[in-house]
Amino acid sequence: xxxxxxxxxxxxxxxxxxxxxxxxxxxxxxxxxxxxxxxxxxxxxxxxxxxxxxxxxxxxxxxxxxxxxxxxxxxxxxxxxxxxxxxxxxxxxxxxxxxxxxxxxxxxxxxxxxxxxxxxxxxxxxxxxxxxxxxxxxxxxxxxxxxxxxxxxxxxxxxxxxxxxxxxxxxxxxxxxxxxxxxxxxxxxxxxxxxxxxxxxxxxxxxxxxxxxxxxxxxxxxxxxxxxxxxxxxxxxxxxxxxxxxxxxxxxxxxxxxxxxxxxxxxxxxxxxxxxxxxxxxxxxxxxxxxxxxxxxxxxxxxxxxxxxxxxxxxxxxxxxxxxxxxxxxxxxxxxxxxxxxxxxxxxxxxxxxxxxxxxxxxxxxxxxxxxxxxxxxxxxxxxxxxxxxxxxxxxxxxxxxxxxxxxxxxxxxxxxxxxxxxxxxxxxxxxxxxxxxxxxxxxxxxxxxxxxxxxxxxxxxxxxxxxxxxxxxxxxxxxxxxxxxxxxxxxxxxxxxx
Length: 499
What we know:
By secondary structure, this protein is an all-alpha fold. It is about 75% helix and about 0% strand. It contains 20 helices and no strands. Mean pLDDT is about 80; it is low at about 1-10, about 55-65 and about 235-280.
């Protein structure tokens, strides 16, 4: 392995690896359970509408016993309304949980969200079916509560990652880490399709139990900051020195001998508890309005509102679209939908690495979003062939999922650790909540619009709607794009003068 690569990796300890993996898999489990609802929509719609084949019951008995709607179209509109209800409550919760996360121990907030959401999903999807309880108001109330509880997770995991990993290489590290949502979607699709033959309630049962267990593991195993083990990274985080734990200095990878390791890490990590120096005061949390006014927060939040609308429309409706539009079985549609997430995983990692190399985020985002508009048009004309559909789906995921992952993770971390925050560092969870919350408001309104446009105009108009929203994302980041391109041009001219 090249020395430069070893040097880059040797800055991390086993504590960094544990923090990376625990935050990664906590959100994997959350998204797996969230994905379950979209994967079983066809089964839920069938359960909530009268069955023509059910001749043992009279129409009145069938309606009163376990059916909510007269036909599938009404059930589809209600499923879209549930998606919007979830995302609106999720958006409100993000604004609140980000502020709470900067003031309360991140581990407590994270575990409360994971375990509470798992319990609500068990009641929504499994317990109501076992007890044959079918009530619109109960479903809406549970989904509002689920959105509020799930909103506690994302700001916390991004804040923990921001505490452990500095700005150097953040685009690549966060690009790789932000694949957690896509990995969760893939896991949820396979879990749901594997048990769907027993009933959709078992899909909710499996994912909710696994998520609850993951919350317990995170509670006992997660360290939210290097300060908890006496480490202080020489990075842009602005953290003051803390007491050094000698056992935490062992790097993940290094070709040097032990005595060289001690010398290198003695420089990189600083022991703080020097007898004659007082401990640094804990940084104060920034206010919500102050965080909203930070440079770049509003443009990226509005761009993410448009982009998350498109991304979450694929998340919530893709299996339903594949099953209804092409006539494929629900389990086949679930498995095929994972190619969108595969593209998103690759896109987030590659584009994050490119943005690190360039030192700029906006040009990479704008280029990817422009190509995404073409990919959406291409996918809308996909033939009834699963292989071609999968290739086009992965391409679309690369250009849409990649930018979405970058804004929600690496760029949010950049905004929460910028120079304007010197002296008031506790803003990362708040800024993340603002960006993701604004994105969720856009996504919430979009989910009902998708069901409405599809029922009135068809799926082709839905894809044209996606193209317009993707173009809106480019418009909102245009000022930042212009600023960063001008900065790159000035840097290049200055470099030429020096040569």
